Amino acid sequence: MCNGIDGWFAVLADCEPAGSIYEKRPRVACGEVFHSSGRPMLVGCWCGERLLEVRIKNMRVFLIGLFSVSSEELRQRLGSARRAEEVNRAVSGLAGSFYVIISGDDRVQIRGTISESRRVFRASVDGVAVGTSMAGLAARLAGAKLDENAIALQFSSLSSWSLAETTSWRDVYAVPGGSALNLTSAGRSEVTRWWSAPEPSQTLREGAEALRDGLRAAVTARVHSVNGVLAADLSGGLDSTSICFLAHEAGAGLVTTTIHWSAAGNEDGYWADLAASGLSGLERITYDSGQLPELFSDIGQRHHAIDEPSPVVRERSQLRVVSRDLAGVGAKLRLSGHGGDELTNPDVAHLAALVRRRPVKGFRELAAFRSRERWGAKETWQMLIDQQGYRAWLTRMARPASLVAARRFYPPGWEVPPELPPWATESAVALVSDILRSAADRASALHRTRSGHSRINTAMRGGRMAWQLAQAGAQMGLPVSSPFCDDAILEVCLRVRPDELRNSRTYKPLLKAAMRGIVPDLLLERETKDHSGVEWYRGLRSRRRELAELVDDSILVKLGFADAGRLRRALMNPDMHQVSVMTMESTLGLETWLRDTHAMSV
């Protein structure tokens, strides 16, 4: 019976052996759809989200997710479509976040979102291909074991398109964003590409108009999909503030949350309070950081594992309290500004091309960013002269010396380079190096330019994080949705020229231009971004006993990937080591996920 929290589904081909796979399904299924043959096609639990079916010609088209389009509107969009390719073109640009499932011509096609905020996985179960919305579900159906190579890659905080099909389990594969899984009546599977990136040809003004319309439609789709109160983060940042004003404009019954962090110079609370004053009728829940559980306060406790390791481990106990309080006032869905950074404030991988195309502007921007980001002269020069393709760049990054190099002040390349932490063993470095070299041999870029590839890969990294947040939120009783990660929004941002999307003078110029007239001008003047650094260090210091016990029984140490002594020293004295917050959280997230996964399997 549906509990309104855990969402999942599995898609089965129209073949006789699929019946035995159907019998292995989780018993909490709340919905089923059958092929015309009577065999099961779709089984799962999508409570809190819509399932829409439209029949056209010889096909059945399903949307699962958050969207506002009606059956008749979708039927009109589909028109005379006869093939899956035509269906995908017809639904392109629809507002919201959703899966598309197409049944016809003895096959079923399933796809998620380009950003991977909704993902699809494939596995072979008893010799028959199956598609699922969760990797863990595919692993359970197939009886798959954890893949130590994948764990090593996660240890390096790698988010590379070259390994887009990799999951944490052997013989379970992700369907990359922009691709679709096709299941045939013979029980086989094929992955096909349905999306190609638009060229960045629009000006800031053109892009701002499109982003305004797109975000307005995306948030409105959530408002119309939720029958009840809508929650939203009001952190003080530009992304969450924009989402709140759009939801308010759409007539949502809105309740927001704000956490006031304790650092003396933290401005988030000030900007959040200022934003709240412009939202009439707003119901608001605010916390001083001391009113919530400390960060990392449940680091030693076991939890239901989501599909992938996640840095949400630091704030899991806080999220649980906030979700409980929001659900207590009737909230059905929580909106997040996640993904705004990745789409509207990407890295500056376009600088080398800009210098060649427009030298005066290019060198001016290069000097400004080099000063701000503290790039070295050698590294900056190398970026300018580097004409390597994606494969060659990835091969260079796979060298053991590159994998352990500190990259805190380094110009961008094709992707964020993989970087193993200082407590990684030599065997871990060697294994990751071998895997990356092998991947480089067959890698192909997402776009012909370094900047284009980087922007898409960054958006996908943000989408995967949104997918993790959605799973974590659902487990805590309040699903989380990230409008910035919608396909329609991603494509709008990709169409804007990179030198207009990001410049050295203005913070998030595209988003500010898009929100002018919706968000008060004073709020659009913010040029800063704050964090919870004081609470982060305090949480680690107060959990030294639990962290020491974690190292003593570390799965990463047992696998030979982490050196216990170096890891213990870093965790016991985090402020004495020049290790990034992200690096530390990545290791803790991976270790706790491995423990949670192991606890679920015994």
Describe this structure in words.
The radius of gyration is 24 Å and the shape is globular. It has a 6-stranded antiparallel β-sheet. Strands 4-5-6-7-11-12 form a 6-stranded antiparallel β-sheet. The chain has a 5-stranded parallel β-sheet with strand order 15-14-13-16-17, with helices on both faces. The chain has 602 residues and is an alpha+beta fold. The N terminus is likely disordered. The protein has 4 domains: 177 residues, 4-Layer Sandwich (Glutamine Phosphoribosylpyrophosphate, subunit 1, domain 1); 213 residues, 3-Layer(aba) Sandwich (Rossmann fold); 102 residues, no CATH class; 60 residues, no CATH class. The protein starts with 7 loop residues before the first strand and ends with a helix. It has 25 helices and 17 strands. The longest helix is centred in the last third of the chain and has 26 residues.
